[in-house]
């Protein structure tokens, strides 16, 4: 069987990303710069000759637009199966979804027992999820068990789809915190790492298990930027 790899992309930079708003299940469009960054990524992936057999994104508008751009750059629009899966959505921040990051991560959460004087990078994902669940006045936020379960279920389902079809690579577009959480679930000893817009995290599936190959790789985007800059001259 052909080796199974998931090329997991964080969507392009959005309006909310740019102005510092918590963007979980709420949504905002990609900025012009955000779209350009994904065009760069697509050009870089094409230049590297990475073959993709299937495509998957969350059902958020920002991931779907990112996927549309990537498939266009790769010449794969309507050429490979593409599915949208709500299981690989971003975290839900409940009643604080759409608010400023400073309100959630600097204002509200640090005052809870969950943070206990630690900064955001020192708080493990399960405790962070519990903190968000506790401060959500609307009752929309997920428990850690719900969040963990849907992410593992969603990404394992993608890997198993490839396995059932003889292996190969999948192009997957998801979200920053969800990708970071998945990496931590697969490799808890790995330090937390910020996942940049347009970066690629590669996962491998073998013997029924997902493992982390690389995290937040920007080299494909950088290669694509050089190609597009040269073409524009």
From TrEMBL:
InterPro entries (alphabetical)? His_Pase_superF_clade-1, His_PPase_superfam, PGM_Phosphatase
Check the record and name the Pfam families matching this protein.
His_Phos_1
Q: Which residues form a coiled coil?
A: none
Q: What superkingdom does the record give?
A: Bacteria
Q: Per its UniProt record, what PANTHER family does this chain match? A: BROAD-SPECIFICITY PHOSPHATASE YOR283W-RELATED, PHOSPHOGLYCERATE MUTASE 2 PARALOG
Q: What is this protein called?
A: Histidine phosphatase family protein
